[in-house]
């Protein structure tokens, strides 16, 4: 191919060449009707299309947990999941946890236990903690550490994060 040969002819509308899909998602309690490119990740949908930037971009490979959200109450890495796979689903991000000025109990516990330093991983850590509680699997400190190991904190606030998770699990037991 010559250097100046266009890949697409000038008559091709690039927008028409992008395959899209119409989906409906309930995001932080609000139903959203969206049309997205079929390769759009949930992370990109949230951050780039809906401007919900509390969900962080970390590794973009599912290894750090910065992009953790709740999908139908379960924690997932939003960078690894395509938006079109979840038509009809309910998504909760860090922005959807508080009720007005009242923080979610896990958010409040992160503050009380000083379970963050730079704060970059905190939204993913909080969503992962809530998902962990919903799963009901963690019974011991070792299980908490293991089940939270997908969320990396480069500042090293792990001991305080584990205290928060342990306390949140205990509060959830008492409330049940």
User: Helical percent range?
Assistant: 25-40%
- Please tell me what the overall shape is: globular
Radius of gyration based on Cα positions: 19 Å
Largest sheet: 5 strands, mixed
- How many beta-strand segments? 5
* Helix/strand/pairing category: alpha+beta
**Helix run count:** 6
* Overall CATH architecture of the largest domain: Roll
N-to-C SSE string, H for helix and E for strand: HEEHEEEHHHH
Please give the domain count.
Answer: 2
Q: How widely separated are the two ends?
A: 68 Å
In CATH, the homologous superfamily of the largest domain goes by the name Beta-grasp domain
CATH topology of the largest domain: Ubiquitin-like (UB roll)
| Sheet with the most strands: spatial strand order | 2-1-5-3-4
Q: Average pLDDT value?
A: 91
Low-confidence stretches: none
Tell me the strand percentage band: 15-25%
| Name of the level-1 CATH class of the largest domain | Alpha Beta
Word description of this protein:
It is a single chain. The chain has 176 residues and is an alpha+beta fold. It starts with 13 loop residues before the first helix and ends with a helix. It contains six helices and five strands. Helix content is 34%, strand content 15%.
In short:
The chain has 176 residues and is an alpha+beta fold. 34% of the residues lie in helices and 15% in strands.
Architecture blueprint of SSEs:
Elements: H1 14-17, E1 20-27, E2 30-37, H2 42-49, E3 68-71, E4 74-77, E5 90-92, H3 105-112, H4 122-135, H5 141-147, H6 158-175
Parallel strand pairs: 1-5
Antiparallel strand pairs: 1-2, 3-4, 3-5
Helix pairs in contact: 3-6, 4-6
